[in-house]
Amino acid sequence: MRQKRNQRIDLRMHKKAIGKADRLSKRMKKRLWVLREAPGVYHIYTKPQMKAAARTISKECRLPAFNFYQTGEYIVHITQRPD
User: Fold this and answer.
1) Residue 74: CB partners within 8 Å, gap ≥ 6?
2) pTM exceeds 0.90
């Protein structure tokens, strides 16, 4: 029961972070990244912040290269390029 509840909370936080990133992207006129650090912990970053976060993730997880234009385990959502 506990795992199902945690999954629902994580999914709710996931949707909330994506919606907030889309709204901020339109307002700021910048591309934003939604990064998942832990279950239920999502952060929204700009490009320079994302580059710094990618360096720390690569060092911690010992990944050879970190592609931050592709969604995956850490990057959950990338907003569309604003016009």
Assistant:
1) 35, 36, 37, 57
2) no
Write out the residue range of the structural domain in which residue 72 sits: 2-78
Q: Which long-range contacts (CB under 8 A, 24 or more apart) does 49-52 make?
A: none
Q: Which residues contact 70 (CB under 8 A, 6 or more apart)?
A: none
83 located within any domain:
no
Residue 30 belongs to some domain of the structure: yes
What is the domain count for the chain? 1
pLDDT in tens, 14-38: 999 999 999 999 999 999 999 988 8
pLDDT at 43: 93
Task: Please give the structure tokens belonging to residue 64.
Answer: 């050879």
Query: Is position 67 within any domain?
Result: yes
